[in-house]
Amino acid sequence: MDIREYSYILKIAECGSLTRAAEELYIAQSALSMYIRNLENRLGVKLYNKVGRKLIFTPEGQKYISYAKQITEIDRAGKREFQEIREGKTGSVRLGASLSRAPYILPGFLKTMKETHPGIEVKLSEGSSKELGKMLEMREIDLALISLPRECRFSYTPLFDEEVVIYAPKTAGLGQYAEEREGCRYPYIPMDKLDGIPFIMLREGHHLRRIAEDMFFHYQIKPQVVYETHSALLAVELVEAGLGSTVMYDSMQIQNDYDGIEKYSCGSVRVNTMIVAYNSLKESTAAVRITHDLLVQKIGSTM
After folding, report:
1. Which of 33-37, 100-104, 253-257 is least confident?
2. Which fold would CATH assign to domain 3-87?
3. Which listed residue, 2, 53, 207, 239, has the most CB atoms within 10 A of its CB?
4. Per-residue pLDDT reduced to its tens digit, 73-86
């Protein structure tokens, strides 16, 4: 049944008269009378009786009015809610972030998101850039904070570039070998100085693990791997504790300034681009577009 037809019976109940109800509904009284007869025939009950000039609703009519009120209120509530979703006042966004980025990118961003758009719920997923890329392709997430893959099959907005560097504890003494080199953001150290030193590796499957292994193979060096971890945050903390060096992105400040860590450029400069990836912003909800724009504003401008 058309939702407008529920409003007809409610208007009749409000006016107590078919004539007045038809006038306020801007339809012919005959059309309204026919609607009521057809409705009663479909329901198999009498909705009201005419007593003089008054319409007295039957118990069945009163029950129908009760349902009509509930249905029209649900309709109004639904329209209000979807209007707010269209306007970006409310909504839900499925945001994926790589395990190495989430600890230092998300806290500040989510705090700002909560303050500026409290009606938008952000649902988090974590994984490797490869895993999040697959989730994006399967439409399991709306946005993904990942490294730009070599073969990109989705749309994206660049956020910032990172240099792959060596994080080393100051106590390792690598600073004595450091030199300035054009094109490097940090002092450069010869790769052979890493041979045999204690090293902390990210586990198989992590993008930085592959970069580190390629680097070691290219320069024919074999560091002493003392710890392996899935967590970039833990790897940096272990370096801070003086337990070894690691290959890391230079943006990995993880909300802290590490007094015990030095960064060194290594070999040919390797640059990684962080992106916010998506399938189509045009086809996305306002909440997704707002989240995307705030990520670009909050993260892209501060890194």
Report:
1. 253-257
2. Arc Repressor Mutant, subunit A (1.10.10)
3. 239
4. 999 999 999 999 89
CATH architecture observed for domain 91-159+274-300: 3-Layer(aba) Sandwich (3.40)
Residue 8: which H helix or E strand, with range?
helix 3-15
Domain boundaries, the chain: 3-87, 91-159+274-300, 161-272
CATH class for the domain made up of 161-272: alpha beta
Give the model's confidence band at 301: pLDDT under 50 very low, under 70 low, under 90 confident, else very high.
low
Q: Which residue has the tokens 């007045």?
A: 20
How many other CB atoms are found less than 10 A from the CB of residue 34?
A: 11
How far is C-alpha 183 from the chain's CA centre?
A: 35
Q: CA 259 to CA 109: how far, in whole Å?
A: 25
Global pTM reads: 0.75
Mean pLDDT over residues 30-57, rounded? Answer: 89
Give yes or no on whether 3-87 and 91-159+274-300 have one common fold. Answer: no
- The C-alpha atoms of residue 31 and residue 265 are separated, in whole angstroms, by 83
Please give the average per-residue pLDDT across 178-187, as a whole number.
86
Task: Round to whole Å and give the CA distance between 60 and 45.
Answer: 7
